[in-house]
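Sequence only, no structure available. Ideas?
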Amino acid sequence: MTSTAGGGTTPTGVGERLGFKKGLVVQELGWDQDTDDQLRIAIEDSIDGDMVDGDHGNVVDAVVLWWRDDDGDLVDGLVDSLTDLVGGGFIWLLTPKVGRPGAVDPADIAEAAPIAGLSQTTTATVSREWAASRLVAPKSLG
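Reply:
I predicted one. C-alpha cells follow.
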C-alpha cells in the first residue's frame, strides 16, 4: 500500500486497488464509530474529494456500504444502496472480518446479492478489521 518509484501502472493504494479513481462520486452509507478511518481516507485520496452521504440527492458512481450483522436485512440494505447508483456503477460492501463482532457470514452475502439484483464479482481484505465484497448490477441483454 505504499508508493514506490518506478513508474509502474499497478495501483499502489487500497483505494486504487478497489477501483476508485480521481473524480468519481462515491456515496458512503452505514458509517459508524467502528468504521476504518484509514480506509475512508485512502478512498477519499483516490477520488481526490470527500465521499457523499445518503442525502446527496444526485447520482453516484460507486457506493461504499459499511454493514454489520445486526444492521438489519442485508437485502434491504443493498437495495437501498442502489437508489442513487448510476448504471454501470459498483458497490463495495464492507463487513467486519469473520470472527470479529458484527461479522457477516459470506454465505449471507452470496444469498442476498442476487435477491437485490446484484452479482458478487470480487472479495478483498481491505483492512485489519474489514473485508470487502464488490457487487455490480448484471449487464442487461437489451
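Residues 26 and 62 are 5 Å apart (CA to CA).
Hope that gets you unstuck.
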